[in-house]
């Protein structure tokens, strides 16, 4: 089930849909193949609604700031999800809405969004860099695309490092080229401690981002509260005879 850069071919999509039909969950596909579970569910939904035509690439749309603001507020109001909004408003990828919400809760303008294209080629990294990147991905709920943007590495590199790390730990991320297979891990105690701190920082940053979303939601609720208090419920009372 190959990939071409940051895009999935029609054959890729159909193969993942077939796995779902065979009983594999979207979350299991994400863990095994690195494909976002929301993306898999969206493909299944489109395929069930429109067949193969629903899986073909769509034209890139430009969205107005007002439209972005509307969807951000709908998400922050609760009772919906990124995939549900993407389906409701015919947006090709739910991660687009996630980017808008992230910008909004970070205090940035919604007019500055651009479609991000992950790197197709990687770069040289040290073992410590690879471990730091893997820890960030795990702390951020397996956000592979986010890691490619943050650390300027390719999707394939990140996916491979995470897989190796989960199977054999930090030692699996050593550069073994030109080295004897019996060579021991080369991380010092200080480096291990520094990586542990970075891991905690990555997780705290992720949780802080989620807290910011909750704060924005509470702000919206406070703004709506005075209006709701002014609404007088209509009561049916029997007329006196």
UniProtKB/TrEMBL annotation:
Belongs to the IS150/IS1296 orfA family. This is Helix-turn-helix domain-containing protein. SUPFAM superfamilies: TrpR-like. It comes from Levilactobacillus fujinensis. Residues 170-192, 219-241 are annotated as: Disordered. InterPro entries: InsJ-like_HTH (IPR055247), IS150/IS1296_orfA-like (IPR052057), Trp_repressor/repl_initiator (IPR010921), WH-like_DNA-bd_sf (IPR036388). Residues 13-59, 67-106, 129-181 form the Insertion element IS150 protein InsJ-like helix-turn-helix domain. Pfam families: HTH_28 (PF13518).
